[in-house]
Write a structure and sequence with these properties.
mainly alpha; transmembrane; transmembrane helix; membrane
Length: about 200
């Protein structure tokens, strides 16, 4: 007669904790979105984030390393934060991280070309086109401002959220954790911007 040894099943709390740990990029995106949205008032406030979202993908394609997406994101975050601090200290409204990030896209793309990253097509070529589109939307948002700028940046962020989903599914260009983080951040910030514009 054989005896069966009961298999220990994971406890519900342990399973839930593992699920939360596995979803840390989404949780981080939610936390950052809540932080940014707490002080949101103009469409131009989110223009640097839209520009950053494009440059992270472009930079990862130019460097040829998906894992470089997180350091690139942290770099863009540092640029945006430094520009805001400088604007606050000097009182100069013209200091905007959007222009710095858009300017950085050119040498990044050039570096990618020098490193012969022109293939595959979903790499540097497609990311350069996307950067041009998202960058243009960010630039127009800064220049136009007002409700038009708010709705434009919201549409741009929703477009980039779809971009994140596609890259997460195909597991291309950036690591999946970054794509998951960005889709949550982009979607929630777009929704917050629309609410601010409507209630405004």
């Amino acid at each position: 007669m054989t005896t069966t040894v009961p298999v220990a099943r994971p406890r519900p709390v342990a399973r839930s904790l593992r699920g939360v740990v596995r979803r840390w990029p989404a949780a981080a995106g939610l936390a950052l979105a809540a932080f940014v949205a707490s002080d949101l008032s103009f469409g131009a406030d989110l223009a640097p984030i839209l520009a950053a979202s494009g440059i992270v993908y472009l930079g990862a394609a130019a460097l040829g390393r998906a894992a470089s997406a997180w350091p690139l994101f942290l770099g863009t975050f540092a640029v945006i934060t430094a520009a805001e601090i400088l604007a606050g200290v000097t009182g100069a409204g013209g200091v905007d991280g959007t222009w710095v990030l858009l300017g950085a896209a050119v040498p990044l793309a050039a570096y990618g070309l020098l490193r012969r990253r022109a293939t595959p097509a979903h790499g540097l070529p497609l990311q350069s086109l996307a950067m041009a589109g998202f960058g243009a939307a960010a630039a127009v948002t800064v220049l136009v401002g007002g409700d038009a700028g708010a709705y434009l940046v919201a549409v741009g962020l929703l477009g980039h959220a779809a971009w994140d989903v596609w890259h997460h599914r195909t597991n291309r260009v950036v690591v999946r954790s970054l794509a998951e983080f960005c889709v949550v951040l982009d979607t929630l910030l777009a929704a917050a911007m629309i609410v601010v514009a409507i209630t405004g």
